[in-house]
């Protein structure tokens, strides 16, 4: 394993904190996407009228689709400078990976959540992207199918947020099974030699095995 010198890691971490506005509230950043996502999920579930078994199958199908989408987005957008998403490349590959290399993954203080969490407007962006698809599914398979698709997408986003955060918490909190093997899996991706080659799945290693990018810890 090759990791950046600790002096460089410390410098980049200090730069992240120096560039963080004084008004930044890490707990607000953590809470808002979860509250918004939770409200969307609750509203979708409340609006269900009694989905059939076939409509419930939207849930596992959607989970597989978003696992594959996460893998593709992570590999081709976050780890390749692709216009017009260069800012995402800089945020993830240039900043996040330089601050948290394998062997030094954990955050040291709450304000570092700015370098870990998704943008605070992520649930709104997901809603805008998924809502037209959910509407199309509702027209084809019934309103309950569309509602379940929308709820599943937001539940997955929340799961992603919490799992990724957990991987960067202190080691004693990452020992809990089954979190530990997932944290170790993600740590391999943070090896500077492997970050553009392996373990792009954050919530699940499934698509890495499907696409041949799996590298066991």
List the helices and strands and how they pair.
Layout: H1 6-19, H2 26-47, H3 53-56, H4 58-78, H5 86-99, H6 122-141, H7 143-167, H8 179-189, H9 206-211
Helix pairs in contact: 2-7, 4-7, 6-7, 7-8
Number of helices: 9
The number of strands is 0
Helix proportion: 55-70%
Q: What structural category arises from helix and sheet content?
A: mainly alpha
Query: Strand portion, in percent?
Result: under 5%
Average pLDDT, rounded to a whole number, is 92
Poorly predicted ranges = none
Walk me through what this model shows.
By secondary structure, this protein is mostly helical. The termini are close together. It contains nine helices and no strands. It is globular.
């Amino acid at each position: 394993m090759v990791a950046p010198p600790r002096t460089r890691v410390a410098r980049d971490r200090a730069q992240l904190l120096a560039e963080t506005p004084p008004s930044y509230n890490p707990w607000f950043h953590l809470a808002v996407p979860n509250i918004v996502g939770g409200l969307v999920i609750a509203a979708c579930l409340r609006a269900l009228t009694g989905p059939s078994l076939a409509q419930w199958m939207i849930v596992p199908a959607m989970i597989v689709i978003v696992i594959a989408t996460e893998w593709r987005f992570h590999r081709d957008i976050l780890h390749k400078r692709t216009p017009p998403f260069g800012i995402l490349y800089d945020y993830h590959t240039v900043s996040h990976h330089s601050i948290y290399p394998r062997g030094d993954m954990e955050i040291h203080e709450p304000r570092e959540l700015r370098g870990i969490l998704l943008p605070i407007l992520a649930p709104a962006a997901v809603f805008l992207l998924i809502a037209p698809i959910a509407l199309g599914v509702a027209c084809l398979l019934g309103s309950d199918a569309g509602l379940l698709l929308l709820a599943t997408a937001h539940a997955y986003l929340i799961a992603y947020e919490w799992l990724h955060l957990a991987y960067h918490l202190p080691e004693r909190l990452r020992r809990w099974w089954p979190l530990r093997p997932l944290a170790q899996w993600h740590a391999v991706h943070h090896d500077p030699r492997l970050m553009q080659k392996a373990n792009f799945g954050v919530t699940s290693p499934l698509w890495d095995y499907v696409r041949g990018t799996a590298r066991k810890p």
